[in-house]
Design a protein that fits this description.
Blueprint (H helix, E strand, L loop, with lengths): L4 H10 L9 E4 L8 E5 L9 H11 L2 H6 L1 E4 L3 H13 L3 E5 L5 H9 L3 E4 L4 H15 L2 E2 L6 H17 L5 E5 L4 H13 L4 E7 L4 H8 L22 H10 L2 E5 L1 H15 L5 H10 L7 E5 L6 H8 L1
Parallel strand pairs: 2-10, 3-4, 3-6, 4-5, 7-8, 7-10, 8-9
Antiparallel strand pairs: 1-2
Length: 311
């Protein structure tokens, strides 16, 4: 069953205590008559859109359940979001992160007072360890994408885009596990069915594209990209169902295009975006359309790596 527009509207009220209404900037594109709208989720607390879903879920947990503590598995941004929301509610949080997590994301989690456990390199490794710790300690798992409450929270970005840019014709959304595009597509199609929603994933991690071709969620053997937040091997069951029904198209972008978009966002919009956060912009810049919006989903990037991208 898909998340409803009412679910997303209720989430928008619920998350006001923590999440920001981020700006939507209009940036000219050189040589093109059409500029590009940028929904700046990189300016959220914690530096990414993930705060929306994490807040919507943790806020709905019964007080006795919440007070026992929460746990998640994340390559970084969702972990930071859960840690931040847990700190607001003053409950314990444990974040299971990969061995390859960028230092800036690990440090961001620890700054919020959460415990970090390192486990493997894949989302499956992290999920298995989180489930083990949750059972042992009586913690509640706040999954990174495949849950209706998470999807509804992420969908609030779509509501804001429609309010801030009523004339929008197309929305580009980065795709990892699919939580954001599931929520945004539910919001956009629920209010303006004619607006196109395009998912964007790295060419080296095209699990949603493969799943759509197969007609069901598939697991890739491996993923590889500079976009570390978009590397799950498999989309969620619930997120796939939303994409299958609601999303107009899913495209892929190369690492060169992603790094070029990081550079463009810095030079033209003065925005710091991590590679995962710039993927949607990379696709939108191929052939800018009038009234297009790309979601800049995160800005958590190590300074040294960022310097390399913008040179």
């Amino acid at each position: 069953m898909l998340v409803s527009l009412d679910d997303i509207r209720a989430a928008a009220v619920r998350i006001r205590m923590v999440a920001r209404r981020t700006p939507l900037l209009e940036i000219p594109v050189e040589g093109q008559s059409a500029g590009l709208g940028l929904k700046c989720e990189s300016l959220q607390p914690g530096g990414a859109f993930k705060i929306r879903g994490a807040c919507n879920m943790i806020a709905q947990l019964p007080p006795e359940t919440r007070s026992a503590g929460v746990i998640t598995y994340s390559s970084g941004n969702h972990g930071q979001a859960v840690a931040l929301v847990a700190a607001v509610f003053r409950v314990p949080a444990v974040i299971v992160m990969p061995e390859t997590a960028p230092r800036v994301k690990v440090e961001g989690v620890r700054r919020q007072g959460a415990e970090v456990i390192v486990a493997g390199t894949t989302s499956a490794d992290r999920k298995a360890r989180a489930e083990e710790v949750a059972r042992a300690r009586g913690l509640t798992i706040v999954p990174p994408f495949d849950h209706p409450w998470i999807i509804a929270g992420q969908g609030t970005t779509g509501l804001e885009i429609l309010e801030q840019r009523p004339q929008v014709r197309v929305v580009y959304v980065p795709v990892g596990g699919g939580g954001q595009i599931a929520g945004v597509s539910a919001a956009v199609k629920g209010m303006r069915g004619h607006v196109r929603v395009i998912g964007v994933e790295p060419a080296g991690a095209a699990r949603m594209s493969a799943s759509l071709r197969a007609g069901h969620p598939v697991t890739l053997d491996h993923t590889s990209s500079i976009a570390d937040g978009l590397l799950p091997l498999r989309p969620g069951d619930i997120t796939f169902a939303h994409v299958h029904v609601l999303v107009d198209e899913v495209v892929t972008v190369s690492d060169d295009e992603i790094s070029g978009a990081v550079r463009w966002l810095f030079r033209e919009a003065r925005l710091v975006a991590e590679p995962s956060g710039a993927a949607a912009t990379a696709a939108a810049l191929r052939a800018p359309e009038p009234d297009a919006v790309a979601i800049v989903s995160g800005g958590n990037v190590d300074a040294e790596a960022f310097a390399g991208y913008i040179r």
